[in-house]
Design brief:
This protein has 14 helices and 23 strands. The protein starts with 18 loop residues before the first helix and ends with a strand. The radius of gyration is 23 Å and the shape is globular. It has one domain. The strands form six sheets. A five-stranded mixed beta sheet has the order 3-23-22-19-18. Strands 13-5-4-20-21 form a five-stranded mixed beta sheet. This is Circularly permuted ATP-grasp type 2 domain-containing protein.
């Protein structure tokens, strides 16, 4: 099946959202585009936007490739996405609250009990634990793919510590710097207010015992973390302190930050550390990254952790397959955004189908991420398919399978010139005690290798600026 081209109709007509950009591209010489691409790479190197790939034998930090041609969404397309994202995140929050509370979703037979209790991200310490303002997922990254003019699918829900927003912001800045003449032709909804919206969200979820001006910090594992650039970038843009575990301590169930002027109470921690490492007294005792006693302060309601502990129970790929039913159960509404059709290998009939059709399916580990631990049947060798067949038979509960989607394409500037490449989109949804905030667009990730469907940066993917037309 041919992929949906987001810029050009099958008869060669340019879609209206891309009309001005297509006209400019038709007259821009290749030398100019190459020069701008080189300028963009130089800018990113100077800024220091890098990431590390765990397991890379060289241990070198890399630039995420940046494609200079923006992706464009019409206002009406974005409005549909926005409504669907708000609905989905509301349901995610209600589901997590229920999982750690009354578990009505289990009693009603909507989600199997073992998917909760056997989930490695389930935290029994959170059972019966209330969180400030009943918000668990304050920052969500919902991965979206498009297959035709009207159909957007949710590919994945990231409800723990979604990353990538710094690239969204830097991509826009670089695009505006390199292509002012193109930007001037469009009315583009801004994204630079994301950090203002994030700070407002974080302050809104402070414990009720906090002062009128709550203290917010960003907790990082440290400079050797693969996403440390983003941690420092966001702390700087938010105007808050970036701290490591050793910079905080707990006394009388209250978290304090060490400062040159003495201890200062902390009300909200935007943590970029996994649950396991947050508190050596509650989770992994060998963790040197967390804060001893942090969970005691959290349970007492004296500090807010963003996102809440245990949110991973909602973002594995098996639970994902139940999200349409979860939306209906908690909201009494039909999902605005649909899932990719998904086969649960835990079910005998589905497993039999998957084993018979491995060559045409995408098979994913339930707890996998980053493009690892998956099989793309049409692009796999016979040996890889045989290996996955054995894995499925041995441990079917650990996998789901989906059809190989013809992800939509956008024009990209690659070595051979302007060519289509497959893309996805990660919008960032902020949920505070007062409202839901979503800046228009998000992070578009692009599979820069010809024919590839894997957009993850760790697998050779890149990013591009995402424009939502503000009209």
């Amino acid at each position: 099946m041919a992929a949906f081209d987001e810029m050009t109709l099958s008869d060669g007509t340019i879609r209206s959202a891309y009309a001005d950009l297509a006209q400019w591209l038709s007259t821009a010489p290749k030398e100019l585009l190459t020069h701008r691409r080189n300028e963009a790479e130089l800018l990113f190197r100077r800024i220091g936007i890098t990431f590390a790939v765990y397991g890379d034998k060289d241990g070198a930090e890399r630039l995420i490739p940046f494609d200079i041609i923006p992706r464009i969404l019409a206002a009406q397309e974005w409005n549909t996405l926005k409504s669907g994202l708000e609905q989905r995140v509301r349901a995610l929050n209600m589901y997590i609250k229920d999982v750690y509370g009354k578990r009505e979703v289990v009693r009603a037979g909507v989600v199997p009990e073992d998917l909760i209790f056997n989930n490695p991200a389930f935290r029994p310490e959170m059972a019966g634990q209330s969180v400030p303002h009943d918000v668990y997922v304050h920052i969500a990254g919902i991965d979206i793919v498009r297959v035709d003019a009207d159909t957007f699918y949710v590919l994945e829900d990231n409800a723990r510590t979604p990353s990538g927003v710094s690239y969204m912001l830097e991509n826009r800045e670089v695009t505006m710097r390199l292509f002012p003449e193109v930007v001037a032709r469009h009315r583009i909804a801004p994204v630079e207010n994301y950090t203002d919206e994030l700070l407002a969200t974080l302050r809104s979820i402070a414990p009720r015992s906090a002062s009128r001006d709550p203290v917010v910090v960003l907790l990082t594992p440290g400079m050797y973390n693969s996403a440390y650039y983003e941690h420092s970038f966001l702390a700087d843009r938010l105007g808050i302190e970036i701290v490591e575990g050793r910079d905080l301590f707990v006394r009388d169930e209250i978290v304090y930050m060490r400062t040159t002027e003495g201890p200062r109470r902390v009300d909200v921690i935007y943590r970029r550390i996994d649950d396991d490492f947050l508190d050596p007294l509650a989770f992994r005792p060998d963790s040197a990254l967390g804060v001893p006693g942090l969970m005691t302060a959290y349970r007492a309601g004296n500090v807010t952790l963003t996102n809440a502990v245990g949110t991973g129970v909602a973002d594995d790929k098996a639970v994902y397959s139940y999200m349409p039913d979860i939306v209906r159960f908690f909201l009494g509404e039909e999902p605005i955004l649909q899932n990719v059709p998904t086969h649960r290998c835990r079910e005998p009939e589905a497993l039999a189908y998957v084993l018979d059709n491995l060559e045409s399916l995408v098979v994913k580990e339930v707890s996998g991420s980053g493009g690892y631990g998956m099989l793309i049947g049409p692009h796999a060798s016979k040996a890889e398919i045989a290996d996955f067949r054995a894995k499925l038979k041995a441990h079917p509960f650990g996998y789901i399978a989906q059809p190989t989607l013809a992800l939509s394409t956008c024009p990209c500037y690659v070595e051979e010139g302007i060519a289509p490449r497959h893309v996805d989109l990660r919008p960032f949804v902020l949920t505070g005690s007062d409202k839901v905030r979503i800046v228009p667009g998000g992070l578009t990730r692009v599979a820069l290798k010809q024919g590839s469907l894997v957009v993850n940066s760790s697998q050779g993917g890149g990013t591009k600026d995402t424009w939502v037309l503000d009209r």
